[in-house]
Automatic annotation (TrEMBL):
InterPro entries tied to this protein: YdcZ
Membrane-crossing residue ranges in chain numbering: 7-26, 46-68, 89-107, 113-131, 143-164, 170-193, 205-227, 239-259, 264-285, 291-311
Name the record gives this protein: Transporter family-2 protein
Annotated keywords: Membrane, Transmembrane, Transmembrane helix
Organism, as annotated: Nocardioides marmoribigeumensis
PANTHER family per record: INNER MEMBRANE PROTEIN YDCZ (PTHR34821:SF2)
A Pfam family of this chain: DMT_YdcZ
Length: 330
């Protein structure tokens, strides 16, 4: 954790991350529903992701055109990359965000919001261990401790338990549950590198850059789906199906602003609480048949896992400060 942030930002960081988690779950439901309305196959899932990213990019680009401060921050980012102060690959975090949004459209309608979120949580928590250990984010290093490993393991176990109720759906359900697991792992890296980009520009420019890269990646992926079965129909008329992009803007900007304050893992822990709680409530409201005893057990295990990992956070930071940084990969 850094210490040069204002006191009010440190005070709202964890509650803000909880709200971000709630928004991620809502975005998952919105984009999953949009994909179902757009058509079938991977083309519809990626189409929904492109609509989500595209609307966010349009809003952010319009603001960039009218706000001189944003343009100054963009120049700062370009200078940081040109000088080598910021590795160029840090600017590609949007690809991980695009992957997560794409999995929303590809899997939520089949496996449900609750299983989707638990899978994302497991991947995110496990990946955050590695991200914090190597100090990829601006909050510094936090070495891997037994408590953090146990916490991540409980989150993975929660996926297995939550998915057990869906195994009757066959191999497709298992594969679709693995997609958000992998995407969740990429999310931890995305949060770390976007926070680094935000440090050298601003959280909003980090968000704009994220949407530029993610949108480009989704365009390429959608074109590739033309080789696969599936179809696209006309755009649906409900306005709320197009709000996923604005939710994504809030999520990415919030992560870029708050990860430097609390670290990748602690930000993830707080968002997990929001995601899991909101996921169960969304499924209860829209499809109660998806919510079973195993769903509640998985949710509780997830909370226990992130709590165990969170309790180990201070010790991990202290141990990291006493050890030399690991050598960077060549």
């Amino acid at each position: 954790m850094t210490h040069d942030e204002p006191a009010w930002l440190r005070a709202v960081a964890l509650p803000g991350a909880f709200v971000v988690g709630v928004m991620v779950t809502l975005q998952s439901k919105i984009n999953g529903t949009l994909a179902g309305r757009l058509g079938s196959g991977p083309r519809a899932g990626l189409g929904a992701a492109l609509v989500s990213f595209g609307t966010g990019l349009v809003v952010l680009s319009a603001l960039l055109l009218v706000l001189p401060a944003w343009r100054r921050d963009l120049r700062r980012l370009r200078a940081a990359v040109s000088s080598g102060d910021l590795p160029r690959w840090h600017t590609f975090g949007g690809l991980a965000g695009a992957a997560l949004v794409a999995t929303q459209g590809l899997s939520v309608e089949t496996i449900g919001v609750a299983l989707f979120v638990v899978a994302v949580v497991a991947g995110q928590t496990s990946s955050a261990l590695v991200v914090d250990h190597y100090g990829l984010g601006p909050a510094g290093r936090a070495v891997v401790t037994p408590g953090r490993v146990v916490g991540a393991g409980l989150a993975v176990l929660a996926v297995v338990i939550s998915g057990a109720d869906s195994l009757s759906g066959g191999l497709l359900v298992v594969v679709l549950a693995l997609l958000p697991l992998v995407a969740g792992g990429g999310t931890a890296v995305q949060q770390a590198v976007n926070a680094q980009v935000g440090r050298r520009s601003s959280p909003w420019i980090a968000t704009w850059n994220n949407f530029v890269v993610g949108t480009a990646g989704l365009v390429v992926a959608l074109l590739l789906t033309l080789l696969l079965p599936g179809h696209l129909e006309g755009l649906p008329g409900e306005w709320w199906l197009y709000s996923g992009g604005l939710i994504g803007v809030c999520f990415i900007a919030g992560a870029a602003a708050l990860v430097p304050v609390v670290g990748v893992l602690m930000f993830g822990l707080a968002t997990v609480a929001g995601q899991v709680l909101a996921a169960v409530l969304v499924d209860l409201a829209t499809d109660p048949s998806r919510v079973t005893v195993r769903t509640y057990v998985a949710a509780v295990l997830t909370f226990v896992g992130v709590a165990v990992a969170g309790l180990s956070q201070r010790r991990a930071r202290r141990l990291a400060s006493q050890r030399p940084a690991p050598a960077e990969a060549s």
